[in-house]
């Protein structure tokens, strides 16, 4: 059996990936031309999307580390007589977090500057971090006889980590003062490259630098970070084959499932990318999980959602101006779609007419976002996670009664304000369908509303691991009417053959009592593989 090459998981630097023989998806062709975009270049990408590895590769490139670029595209540029190595000052701002107080944060910022001074054989400049930064850049140029390359990774991490906390304004003021110095040291810089997950003002970068070039949405850099489908197949074929063997699937079938789960990020509306963090962990574990969501703190996104009356469906296919996605306004006043796009939960799409819209990149982000909504609804993470786990088990076991019990728990958790608001807007059934869709996605079940067939549209179609289910929701004026409503729903499913395209689907009709705001009756049929007549039938009793 051939030993698989190491996956690039857990590596902190480009040098470690290259010297340890791990797989590296060659993105170095982008490095030589970055500085042609302008003196200061910015690129935003979601967290865990390869920003730090890119910054590390840029560090090695401008430092002239030819030994690390053998066989890579940028190797030719390093061999060119026109290439000149430059001294690099690299700032990883993800280490400058305020969780232990502002004094510790300032000390960490000084430590980063001190490590750069030591790298170039210099003493740490005196003064506060702002003053020390200016002196360091000037000293590096003087000592090396070359203008410096400045690399700032995760520039917005200190402020994002402090959102919603009392110290956020103080943190923002510190970082604003620090980043303003990039303009002061401009004469000593050959080139500066800045990354982050967002582009918001009041942090000093975009409000004080009038010469910054943003390449975040430029088609030329659409695949700068992340993994394309072609790159996945070309670089990880043996790992895909090994995972397929563990899961009892063909490599082609597994690739399609990986595409559903982890592909779909796009920064130009057309080029689709896999999330490298989740994709690599899947190849290592051969298990479909929401790796990206579980890889970091989600407090900011959850707090943002908590006070907003949002539904999962409202962002699907939402028309959007491409330019507005990185409109550098204050983060506190960002629209939900702008905030969620920059957080990585929504991605850009472009249709054949050139119209841009938003959607969830893939099932992982849709499921993660939905689970936030469900947890906020339950207002108790343990209860929410327990309910979603029980529902998923019931779904996979085709246990209609078990699923209904958890659907009831979900509806019972909805606040009366949300019910009242939806009824005032005349939403009715739409409210219950949207809530159920969020719950299904959060539980790890793929689902779509209004699935079109030859005779009509099913309210919800859901599937996972070879199990499929059709759901029809009906509204009843009272418990007494619920039984007939459930029967009518089941008749509609069967008469219009909503489940005809699926193999052995579970058909589920649910009647909601408007006054009780709860499931009042239900009916289920388990369709045998080769027929629709004579199905097994379950009926939920009226409460």
Account of the 3D structure:
The chain is an alpha/beta fold and 543 residues long. It folds into three domains: 14-216, Rossmann fold (3-Layer(aba) Sandwich), CATH 3.40.50; 226-368, no CATH class; 379-540, no CATH class. It is 42% helix and 16% strand. The strands form three sheets. A six-stranded mixed beta sheet has the order 9-10-11-12-13-14, sandwiched between helices. A five-stranded parallel beta sheet has the order 2-3-4-1-5. The chain has a three-stranded antiparallel beta sheet with strand order 6-8-7, with no helix packed on it. A hairpin with a 5-residue loop joins strand 7 and strand 8. Helix 10 (229-247) crosses helix 11 and helix 16 runs antiparallel to helix 17. The radius of gyration is 27 Å and the shape is elongated. The model has no long low-confidence stretch (mean pLDDT 89).
List strands and helices in order, with pairings.
Layout: H1 14-19, E1 40-44, H2 51-62, H3 75-79, E2 88-92, H4 102-119, H5 129-144, E3 148-153, H6 157-162, H7 168-179, H8 181-184, E4 189-196, H9 205-208, E5 212-214, H10 229-247, H11 251-262, H12 276-285, H13 299-306, E6 318-319, H14 336-343, E7 347-350, E8 356-359, H15 363-378, H16 381-396, H17 400-413, H18 416-424, H19 429-442, E9 446-453, E10 456-464, E11 467-476, H20 479-495, E12 506-513, E13 518-526, E14 536-540
Parallel strand pairs: 1-4, 1-5, 2-3, 3-4, 11-12
Antiparallel strand pairs: 6-8, 7-8, 9-10, 10-11, 12-13, 13-14
Helix pairs in contact: 4-5, 10-11, 10-12, 15-16, 15-19, 16-17
